[in-house]
Specification:
By secondary structure, the chain is an alpha/beta fold. Helix content is about 25%, strand content about 30%. The chain has a single domain, classed as Vaccinia Virus protein VP39 (Rossmann fold, 3-Layer(aba) Sandwich), CATH 3.40.50.150. The chain contains 4 helices and 10 strands; from the N terminus they run H-E-H-E-E-E-H-E-E-E-H-E-E-E. Strand 1, helix 2 and strand 2 form a beta-alpha-beta unit.
Length: about 200
């Protein structure tokens, strides 16, 4: 999948944000009017979405329209799209001995329940060698499939990228298997972007 990275953004956002807009344009055929998105976490793309006519609601531990833990907070509204842009990897990990991915699975089950009939979920996260650090887990193939199968969700579109020499290039899942999260401040070195339905 061809994505031109946005050099005006930092770290993995250089791929994540262009991916987000490419997917929204693909699903909505550039008709963003009257669409409602729930952003689980808070991203720096909200203004670009609202300029196109999208209503963006947020659910975040630190506030938003639905303040608190996404899995536990009460939400009655239905959404056209739910975003987990570099947020799902922060869910309720204590250490690497968290093999069942229960909390992430519950988050995706809840997200599916909050979707309108034609709705979809966009997920991006650090991806590669499973490891704990900086308050989240670098996701792996094992974790992805456990959450997908446990939640009954299906992959509609997915792509993988790796960072090297300050640029991102598309790769495959196998090539990311041994890529860990960066030990410096440059953010993720492997990236997963997907649309789940």
């Amino acid at each position: 999948m061809k994505i031109d990275e946005n050099p005006g953004l930092s770290y993995e956002r250089r791929i994540e944000i262009p991916f987000l807009f490419i997917m929204l344009e693909r699903f909505w055929d550039n008709d963003f009017q009257d669409k409602v998105i729930l952003d689980v976490g808070t991203g720096d793309y909200r203004n670009d979405l609202t300029k196109r006519g999208v209503t963006v609601k947020t659910c975040d531990l630190n506030g938003g329209d639905y303040a608190g833990d996404f899995v536990k907070v009460s939400i009655e509204e239905k959404f056209d799209c739910i975003l987990f842009i570099s947020s799902l990897e922060h869910f309720n990990h204590k250490d690497l001995n968290y093999p069942d991915c229960e909390y992430e699975t519950r988050a995706i089950i809840k997200a599916r329940q909050l979707l309108k009939p034609s709705g979809f979920i966009i997920i991006t996260l650090p991806y590669g060698k499973e490891e704990w650090g900086k308050g989240f887990i670098n996701w792996s193939e094992r974790m992805k499939w456990k959450v997908l199968y446990g939640s009954g969700t299906k992959v509609f579109i997915e792509g993988f990228w790796k960072q090297g020499n300050s640029i991102w290039s598309e790769t495959d899942e196998k090539e990311l298997a041994e890529i860990g999260y960066s030990t410096n401040s440059t953010g993720a070195r492997g990236l997963y972007c997907g649309v789940w339905i």
